[in-house]
Amino acid sequence: MIIKKYTANNVNEALGKIRQELGKDAVIISQKKMRKPGLNGLFSKKIVEITAAVESQDNKKYIKEDISKKNLNVSDDIQNDLLEALAERANTKEKYETNDKADNSELLSEMEQIKNMINTLVLNKEESFTDKTEEYLEKQDISKEIIENLLLKVKNIDEKEKLNKIKELIKEEIILEENYLDKIMVFVGPTGVGKTTTIAKLAGKLALLEKKSVGLITIDTYRIGAVEQLKTYAEIMNIPFNVVFNLKDMESAIKSMENCDVILIDTTGRSSKNTMQLSELRAYVEKSNSKNINLVLSSSVKNTDIKVIGDSYKNLGVNRVVITKLDETSTYGSILNILKEVNVPLSFITTGQNVPEDIKFPSKEELLSLIMGENSIC
Ligand SMILES: Nc1nc2c(ncn2[C@@H]2O[C@H](COP(=O)(O)OP(=O)(O)OP(=O)(O)O)[C@@H](O)[C@H]2O)c(=O)[nH]1
Ligand SMILES: [Mg+2]
């Protein structure tokens, strides 16, 4: 008895293949409609799978072929044991039994069992939608927690709708700050994420392109060269610039710029672990009276650090996030991780070192395609 599975686009095509390979005496054992395996298969047309059988002397050869074709992880030893046992049983029956019908039906049921064993192995081997999607989303560096949550939410949804639903759920997490501008804007965040450069880009866009009057203030007197960095940009753009050395100065610095449309305040990069420095920074932020406090984070921030940074900077009244250095990464899951963890709207992103060009205001759709690995920033 030879039992083989055939897949084809339709029943007629499958029957043609069966007739050609097994001959006209072949009988159909089972028939089902299914989708091709894999993530792509989810959206392909259904195919038919027909299992057919025909009498043969050469069971051993066909079982072996079947096993090797399905690329199963069955060791040679197991295969041989299985085949030997089957051959021995068939021989014994040939010797002692005369009733052909009984012999055939027992052999058939034995073959059926083997077929089921093979099918079980095939099923275990084929990756499910969940496994494939999980692996794909992990490759985009989306956090494990978010992935688990997404997969749980689509658990009871029809297979072919799952991927679309996941995209929909991710899109819901992307909250954009539509009115990112304000009279007084403060930028805070860990060291070296690009706060000063971002302020320079924004000042350039507003002052040079949009012809707004912009003022720059820095309270970063901690690092040698920090004042010079922003001062240089202010001079190039020919816009007012002020340095704040203590809390008292903050009020007068802002007052001196009250005629400006926008005042951008740069701060010292602080580690989220240094609570002393953070509370000092908080005093300055409060003194500025700003309602627009941007947490600047680099897209290469580690997943585990986002929560800690988000929690400690929340105390400063952070109500927007800016994601920098998207040009330095090839996966964009961190956008989602940051938005979900910090839980404030996104003002904009930065995509390089050029001032003022490398500042972007992407749409939800553009961010979604980056997060899903369907697009990239070169
Ligand atoms: N590739 C890339 N580099 C950037 C981007 N934004 C800033 N940088 C670079 O990152 C480095 C640090 O930028 P800064 O603007 O000084 O960072 P900061 O947050 O002000 O740093 P501290 O004031 O020391 O906390 C500089 O070399 C910038 O050119 C970006 O979007 N992409
Ligand atoms: Mg700086």
General description of the model:
With 378 residues, this protein is α/β, with parallel strands linked by helices. It has 3 domains: 2-125, no CATH class; 129-173, no CATH class; 184-371, P-loop containing nucleotide triphosphate hydrolases (Rossmann fold, 3-Layer(aba) Sandwich), CATH 3.40.50. The chain contains 14 helices and 11 strands. The chain has helices at 11-22, 59-69, 76-96, 100-125, 129-139, 144-153, 159-173, 195-209, 226-237, 247-255, 275-288, 303-314, 333-342, 364-371, and strands at 2-8, 27-34, 47-54, 184-188, 214-218, 241-243, 262-266, 292-298, 320-324, 346-350, 359-360. The strands form 2 sheets. It has an 8-stranded mixed β-sheet with strand order 6-5-7-4-8-9-10-11, with helices on both faces. Strand 9, helix 13 and strand 10 (346-350) form a beta-alpha-beta unit. The two termini are 59 Å apart. The model has no long low-confidence stretch (mean pLDDT 87). It binds guanosine-5'-triphosphate and magnesium ion (MG). Magnesium ion binds at residues 195-196, 220, 226, 266, 269.
